[in-house]
Every structure is written in structure tokens, then in C-alpha cells.
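sorry for the late reply, my laptop died twice this morning and i had to redo everyting from scratch. anyway the thing you sent over, i finally got around to it. pasting the sequence first so we're on the same page, its 166 residues, then the predicted structure underneath. double check i copied it right bc i was rushing
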Amino acid sequence: MVSRKFERVCCLVLSVLASGCAGSTMGRVSLRSDGTPGPERCSEEALEAMRYLRLPVGAGALVEFDVNQGDAEPTTLYEGRVESMLLSDLGPLDSPTRLYGYVWTSGPQVVIRYYEARPPDSAARVPICAVVRMAQGQMLKLSGSLPGTAVIKYSRGGVFIVDKFL
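ok and here's the structure:
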């Protein structure tokens, strides 16, 4: 029997595909003087999808930052696109939903923004806006981080829904 959550996600995915969702601006953001990404608006498609899925601002879950390095601690993140995985449910997005986003490593700490989600057993991606947030400086780069990379202590952390990137 198919779960109600999965049915809602499938319906949303079909509606997004039918609407011809525009591509994201993943990674094409102005940078601040310290190398961190500047403010960015969420796409209308993402805002609509999150409303439909009842993913309110502040909803959170646990995420593995890079599926290619699961449980590797410390973890090396590379500047550019990243595929992450939910380790707990985020509203109707069940674990192990994949999250697709971008990692910035040029600033004093790593910044990860997510623009799309792909629920399990689905080939379609759903537009979202989410960020990694960690307390107590846990996204600070460790010594030994080379240009274009960031070595961080943990391989997982919190991901939170936003309605704009600050």
C-alpha cells in the first residue's frame, strides 16, 4: 500500500513536470567579500512546491552532506554541486530522499544551499529551498583545507526549509 505522503509527493512531482519548471540558479550567486554566497530569492516553483507539501519555513531534518562520503569524519567537501541524503523525514519527504544543492567553501565556514529534492523511488526532482545550519561553529573549516575544498568535523547535520537565502 502506498503511503499518503508518497502520493502527495508524486502528485507534486507530476504537476511540476507538467508545468515545465525552469532550471535553478544553483551556484550562480553573487559572493560577499569573504567568499560566502550573498542573498538569493527562492524560485516561485520552489515556494509553490513547499506550500503544497506543507513544508513551512523552519521545518528541519538530519542530512548526510555528501552521499559519496557517508559517515566519513572528518569530511572533505568540494566547492560546487553536491548530492546529499535525508537521514530523517522532512515533512512528506521521507528518508532517504536525495537533496541537490551547492557547496561554497571560500568563506570562513562552509555554506550549503539545496534547490531540489528527489523522493525515493522517483526519477523526478521537486524544487525546494533549504540550508544547512549547525550550531557552535561546526561548519567552520578545519586546518588542512585546500583552496576549493573544506575539511569539516562532521559528515551530517541539520537541514532547514527557508523562503529565501540570506
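The two ends are 41 Å apart (CA to CA).
thats about all i looked at so far, will dig more tmrw
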